[in-house]
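User: For a reading group we're discussing how well predicted structures match intuition. Take Sodium:proton antiporter. Before you show the prediction, I'll give you the sequence so everyone sees exactly what went in.
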Amino acid sequence: MTSESDEHRHDDRDDGRQETAIERADRNWEELLQELRVMQTGTQILTGFLLAVAFQPRFTELDAAQVSLYVILVLLAALATVLALAPVGLHRALFGKQLKPVLVRHAALIVRIDLLVIGALSVGVTTLIIDFTMHRTAALITLVASSLLVLILWLVVPMAIRHRRARDSDN
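Assistant: Thanks. Here is the predicted 3D structure of Sodium:proton antiporter, as structure tokens, for the group to look at:
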């Protein structure tokens, strides 16, 4: 539990900022909101694409596997949308309760989960398009390649940056 004096104490992390816990929570909240704006835009584009697909004349040409993947992707798009809106709902429910640091921690977790969902959605949409326009083998190659790309960019690169920073700060 944080006392009022803890919330007003300056952050002792050596990141060059002299800010209180409340100031840090405000800054982190603003950064999370910006991330959510970017995520929502991408999710809205994918969701709009998926919803439009069902009303295209060639939709009836999808085989059973493609229709199943399509339905899964629509559900993932809905989940991504709900997750992207959840921090705003959480903020509204906690507004004025002096719980910004708690809000930031929970919102950050929701954003991480949403990134996983959006990654799966992006990979799935790409796979479905390649499967429909080319063939199943190309779709499977696309699935593996795009999954690896997401893993590398969202997990491996950040881990490498953190590792390099830790190594550099030790020297």
